[in-house]
Write a structure and sequence with these properties.
The structure holds three protein chains of three kinds.
Chain A (H helix, E strand, L loop, with lengths): L4 E9 L2 E4 L2 E5 L5 H13 L11 H14 L12 E7 L4 H9 L11 H4 L6 H10 L5 E5 L5 H13 L5 E9 L4 E9 L4 E2 L2 H9 L5
Parallel strand pairs in A: 4-5, 4-6
Antiparallel strand pairs in A: 1-2, 1-7, 1-8, 2-3, 6-7
Chain B lengths: L1 H14 L25 H15 L9 H4 L3 H11 L2
Chain C lengths: L1 E9 L6 H9 L5 E4 L9 E4 L3 H14 L8 H15 L10 E6 L23 H12 L6 E3 L5 H14 L5 E8 L3 H9 L20 E2 L1 E8 L9 E9 L12 H14 L8 E3 L6 H13 L6 E3 L2 H4 L6 H15 L1 E2 L15 E2 L4 E2 L4 E8 L3 E8 L4
Parallel strand pairs in C: 3-7, 4-5, 4-6, 10-11, 10-15, 11-13
Antiparallel strand pairs in C: 1-8, 1-9, 2-3, 6-8, 9-16, 12-14, 15-16
Chain lengths: ~210, ~80, ~375
């Protein structure tokens, strides 16, 4: 029986991008998530036009996965063995508000399909899956505070029941006044044990940033 | 017509979030979908909203969209014919 | 091993599974034209809950639990649904080995509208808060596990419950799900031009879009049962198309993978499958995609139905509503006809039911697909081995 290991993790918060706890990119001048995700995009230069179609929280999730998976070779695994399990507390509240604002007037309203489609949190999982051709399990959980227990337990269970071999797990959140992404890569290769305690401590690394 | 096409360019870039594009990058004769601007099915729906919101034109049958939204030029022609 | 212990459906056609199922057997259609500017400027068909009856039922349940707080329409639906499902089992909901999993796409989204803003506290619109309200009502000690994964949320929630029971994490899981018809979703689907002007017609050649519906449903799973007629969760999986965020895959890839993995976990072969409950939204692309996935598994001869022509697409509730209906079909060895279906309108020669079929149902497949390229499947059997 092979254990699940964590090989890399990434935080995006406070206009900074961290990989394995080390600062990788910063833009002190960016105001708000929209500007900051644009500058991360320019830094990474993935040349992926669909990025600009995404809502802000999907951009954040997309870029977190982009940083996490940069130069990672997953060719040993088939696409249906790679899963994305994410969570947050606000679902897609800001995009929901956007859509709601466009329909408040009963007589004169023009809802936008490209806003509406992003009012589901798992669209972000779809965007990451399309970009990296991941066809494994998908689940988006909504929890008040990040729960390492929930994510670790869910991923370990999927692994032990042979549903999947590689996992992108974590948190991607955007509230009215803040945003945060914490994602990690788990597979049979890596140097850290995949369990709730470890994930909690990696997540809490952010206090020292 | 020229004026309308220029206005449409700006509106399309804005409405479809084509942030990395400038109005001059869009050739009015080129197909908007497929190889051209690489627009997809959600963009087509968004163009239907644009016509209704900015020009008061309602497309009843979405299948007509294929012809109307073939290029910027066909779109401008359709607006001119249908605007009251 | 996980067993299906009890279930409930709160729909336009009934306030429990038996009542809803009887209506479907009689061919009653819950989808009606709605003419209400608060939802949309034009009339549109939808399947709506009887709110007067909901308030009466909720009052009874609230008195039973000595609860005097105000609750939203969706909370009332979920609470009444859970209470009814619990009443036919011995499952103790205040036990720490009992979890609640909530499946919803938009929860109390109606509270976001400007005219509703002050009716409840601000965070009530958040989905974890909805989970909290539900568990506090029943006094469940565990944080509610909320899954919001578009239209596969319900099937995912059941799969997740079984996985947690099988691993020993919980003895019993109350899976509940619900969504309401709101201006938010009606206008959104209108902008997608995906609503049919009439009650939807799954798999039909004249199908022209989906119908929305509101519902709550509950399925209780547990690690043991005394039932003579056991209904066993055999396997379940999800998969992503990795193709497009709103359009389903043209070759049914994600759906195909989800079914394949569910079959592997269930340790059955495709020839064991007696009946398929499809997602069957009645949009041109979804139904075509499902027919391809079914064909790729050589299941074209197996009776397939969709119940969305009766109850509409109930979003986060759909997977639970439709699994509860499937369980009742298995209990009664009766396959429902597909309301709205007349002539096959998909490219593969699948067997869509145009009448009620009596058949021994030992092993059945449930399919679901949704935005974000998500797909899920689960398999239920009457036998444990």
């Amino acid at each position: 029986m092979v254990d699940l290991k964590i090989s890399r993790y990434c935080h995006i918060m406070d206009n900074k991008v961290f990989v394995d706890g080390s600062l990788r990119f910063e833009d002190r001048d960016a105001i708000g998530l929209k500007q900051f995700t644009k500058s991360i995009y320019r830094f990474l230069a993935p040349s992926y036009n669909k990025f600009f179609k995404m809502d802000e929280i999907s951009r954040l999730g997309f870029l977190a996965a982009e940083v996490l998976l940069k130069d990672v070779d997953l060719t040993d695994y088939s696409s249906d063995e790679i899963s994305v399990i994410l969570s947050n507390s606000e679902s897609t509240l800001l995009t929901d508000q956007n859509h709601q604002d466009s329909i408040n007037d009963f007589d004169n309203f023009f809802p936008s399909p490209s806003v509406f489609v992003y009012t589901l949190p798992n669209i972000m999982i779809g965007e990451i899956s399309i970009r990296h051709k991941f066809q494994g399990e998908n689940t988006f959980f909504i929890v008040e505070n990040f729960s390492a227990d929930l994510i670790a337990n869910h991923i370990n269970n999927l692994f032990l029941t042979n549903k999947s071999k590689v996992f992108v797990g974590g948190l991607v959140n955007q509230s009215n006044d803040n945003y945060e992404a914490f994602v990690y890569l788990a597979s049979d290769k890596g140097h850290l044990q995949h369990n709730a305690l470890k994930i909690k401590s990696l997540y809490n690394n952010k206090i020292e940033y | 017509m020229e004026e309308l096409i220029e206005k449409l360019k700006v509106q399309i870039i804005e409405q479809l979030n084509l942030e990395d594009m400038e109005p001059d990058d869009i050739n009015p004769e080129e197909p908007l979908f497929g190889e051209g601007l690489g627009l997809d099915s959600i963009d087509a729906l968004e163009l239907i909203v644009l016509l209704e919101k900015e020009y008061g034109i309602k497309i009843q049958n979405p299948k007509d969209g294929q012809k109307i939204f073939f290029s910027l030029k066909t779109m401008a022609e359709f607006i001119q014919e249908n605007q009251k | 091993m996980s067993f299906f212990l009890a279930d409930n459906i709160i729909s336009s056609l009934g306030f429990n599974t038996k009542e809803t199922f009887s209506s479907l057997l009689l061919g009653e259609i819950g989808i009606k034209q709605i003419d209400n500017k608060e939802y949309y400027s034009e009339t549109f068909p939808a399947s709506m809950i009887d709110e007067n009856r909901l308030n009466v039922e909720f009052k009874r349940v609230a008195e039973k639990y000595s609860n005097t707080s105000d609750h939203t329409k969706l909370e009332k639906m979920l609470i009444v649904s859970i209470d009814d499902a619990l009443s036919s089992t011995e499952v103790n909901i205040v036990c720490d080995k009992t979890a609640i999993i909530l499946s919803t796409t938009k929860g109390n989204i109606n509270l976001l509208a400007s005219n509703e803003k002050d009716s409840f506290e601000k965070e009530r619109v958040l989905l974890w808060k909805l989970g909290d309200v539900i568990r506090n009502f029943f006094g469940n000690p565990n944080q509610t596990i909320v899954i919001s994964n578009a239209c596969i949320s319900g099937v995912l929630a059941i799969n997740t419950a079984a996985m947690y029971i099988n691993s020993g994490l919980y003895d019993n899981v109350v899976v509940t799900g619900g969504d309401i018809v709101s201006r938010f979703v009606v206008s959104g689907f209108m902008s997608f031009l995906s609503l049919s002007p009439t009650a939807c017609k799954p798999f039909d050649e004249k199908r022209d879009g989906l119908s929305l519906g509101e519902a709550a449903a509950t399925i209780i799973l547990g690690n043991s049962t005394d039932d003579e007629q056991k209904l066993v969760f055999k396997g379940g999986a999800s998969a992503n198309d990795a193709n497009h965020i709103s359009g389903p895959s043209r070759n049914g890839e994600g759906s195909y993978i989800a079914i394949k993995k569910a079959i592997i976990e269930a340790k059955i072969s495709t020839t064991d499958i007696d009946h398929i409950s499809a997602h069957g939204t009645a949009t041109p692309y979804n139904d075509e995609m499902e027919s391809i996935a079914i064909d790729r598994h050589n299941l074209c001869a197996v009776p397939v139905n969709s119940i969305k022509g009766y109850l509409g697409h109930t979003l986060g509730a759909a997977g639970i509503v439709e699994t509860a209906i499937l369980l009742e079909e298995m209990r009664q060895n009766t396959i429902l006809k597909t309301a709205g279906f007349n002539n096959l309108g998909v490219s593969k020669p699948i067997f869509v039911t145009d009448r009620i079929i009596k058949k021994d149902l030992n092993c059945c497949l449930k399919m679901a697909s949704g935005f974000g390229g998500s797909n899920a499947a689960l398999i239920i059997s009457k036998t444990e081995s």
